[in-house]
What does this fold into?
Amino acid sequence: MKQTEQNRQTAQQAAGLVISTGVGKIWAAIGQRRNGGFERAHHAVFELTDGLDNALKRLLDKADDVHMPVVIGLDSAQLRYVDMSLPPVEAAQLPQLIRTQAEARLPLDGDRMQLAWRLVSSAQGYECTVAAARLDSTEAALGRLSLNGRLCAMVPDAAGFAQLRTRLFAPTPQTCIVLRRRSDGIALMRLNEATPLRSAVVHAETADIAERPALVMQDIQMELETIAQKQDRQIPLYIWPENDPFMRRTAEHLSQAGWQVDTLKADRAAMEQAHLDDEQDDAAMLDAFGLAMLGLTDTTPAFDFMQSRQMARTAQDTAMQHKKRLRTIAVIAVLAVLCAAVAYWSLLLEVQQLRRELAVEADGVKAETILQQQAYQEAVARARLDMLELLDAIQDSRDGMLLDSIEFEQGKPVKLVATAGGYEQVYGFQKRLEDKEGVAQVRLIDPRLDERTRQVRFTLQFHYKHYTR
It folds into this structure.
């Protein structure tokens, strides 16, 4: 990974490839630095059935830099997005937490999908947008290519157009939505500067657009409502290309529906300098060049499936190391128990010998009576609840929450009533308390949100050592 980052900083050329499993093609472009900007040095279209490795090999034959970084773009039509809120957890725990929530909310088995995400810190933890792709769409590219250090990112194909928008088109607001025509339908992208926040494709063949334009427009408007999310129709919307009759009709329809619609205008001079032609080049071919530009910058892309996979593997390796440590501790514990057993039996023999020696009465009192009294005192001590240990366990777990009451009675679970600032804080308290030594079976009972104070009042019941059994 470090080698790839160094390549991106020093490389003079980079390759971008857009994979479309639906169309069955790979669009490829080589970009290079020139006079403080970027230009296209080569482009080609390959059949996906010939293999991604074969396409890359043929592309490398046209390159001047055999170590050039490669950026792969996955077809937005193959991606699904979901938004979620995450509690403030350690970075190492995020991949598993994200996967768990994504598996619950996406209609695809966890072992059949690859995830990438974009995180934004919030007051309650993180706001996360997850992009999910079928595993068979990413596995080939993340196989052999990732081993040679050349593949530096795998992102949605919209990341390529996001790069072009800021460099080769007339200025637009920082955040906007772009609708553009492509061979298999209409692509929709919500962009923030050079970063795609969300992307989708409304499939529509040329015949569909000609015969059922109203139906296609209805699908576009429904997809727009999803992409715009909470911003509703206040976010600016741009149509491209402007000379397409259907796109012009779409612009008029959306304007009447309340959207702020304008046309995206290409910077002809910048396009010519980059050796591009927005009127002749396929939309996917422009995306491929944008991905090549991304490979020549030090930008950390959002929704990088390669980086997310690396993070997930790191988390798995950490978990495996933790398990190995636990196994080692278990072996040590068994050996310690064996040593303690040997010592115990030795001590038992000594005690028996001592009892025989003290069997004779002294002043009318037997040694057995003395030992029984001592055993009784020890049993009483064990039956008592160590309040300091219990309160320390609760204090270390509450994280600033207000405790209303604590009830305990021998043979019954400890009952704790408290107030928290939100449900995530309640769940965190429960988790931390469960990890405390001697605490078991922590149950959350009847958490309720006070609409006036926005505070959550809840009850926890748990067992503590032998006292509550």
Observations:
- The chain has a mean pLDDT of 82.
- The longest strand covers residues 439-450.
- The chain is about 40% helix and 30% strand.
